[in-house]
Predict the structure of DUF4935 domain-containing protein.
Amino acid sequence: MAKKTTKRTPKVFLDANIVISAGKPPGGPEIARVVDLVDAGLITVLTTDLTITEVAKKYIQSDFDAIKEISQPHFRKIVEGATGVALPALKRPELRAKLKSIYDESTTQMFDALEAKTLQIDEVKPSAVFSAYAAGEGFFSGDGKKDQFPDAFAFECLKKEASRNSPVIIVSNDGDFDGPVGSAKHISLVKSLPELFAALGLEMAAPQLDPFLETQEEQIVDLVSQELTNWGLHSSDVMDAEIDEITVNSVEVKKLTAFKPSEAGKSILVVGTIEVAALVSFTHPNWDEAMYDSEDKVLIPFEDESGETEIELTIDVAMSIAVDEAGNPEEIEALRFRNSDFQYVTLYPPDMYK
């Protein structure tokens, strides 16, 4: 279908926190739905050069933290001795540069798929932002004033784009936008992509999903297992613990909301919550028998402990589901978690620490 934008086609700005939570480039089902809306001419997308940088930076740092030990010669030697695989010798600046190249390119490609108009932060007069900073207004009316400069500059870019005939919708779960949006003309705020889809009139009565999802239980478990492996879990109660393996035992699908496609015959987007029961195996230093170094005032463990525990997680998800001509669900095309933050789990029951 040919794209048909109008003078009243809303402009949508996706804040970095929303893009990041939708999944690594090229994004999950929610970003795919935004691409559909752009292709159908129902919205146009705005971004800033700083927003693109923020998104890429998040993924660069996350991956760097996960694999930075590869830069240590002793780590590479241990891996080679245990597995027979020789890891490349990369210094940390080289590793970070490689990750930067990967995510700079993939993030740019994602925004290209959204046909996003990139606004330049440099085109904002610094005085417009610093006057608000000096007066303690707008983004600078609360605590953490210095942290608000990126949002303040982005908002000045968006104000130039907004008009009665071209309203701007900001999608952000950052509460710092609440005040500035309330005093701006022709700019509105929604807190998530599902809220955006609802505001655009795309929410629909969900088809008979429960019977369908019951038949897809094995696939759902597999998809959730893949996401958990990519997502990673961290211990909230044991220092330096590592989660070695995650085995998903069951997934219970809770409340779902469906959004109709931009064109008949395309997949529907479904967002909701799942309850996951899983078995995790873990390893951590034996802190109970660690030696105390009085000079450095630290504990020095000499051996590790391993174990297993059952955990339960509540996770927000987005699914893309293919439907037939009658609108009945046929296939789960994708499932992604709607949160990029680390998930912390408790490895030992609280009474062990009494």
User: Anything to note?
Assistant: The first strand starts at residue 11 and ends at 14. The chain has a mean pLDDT of 87.
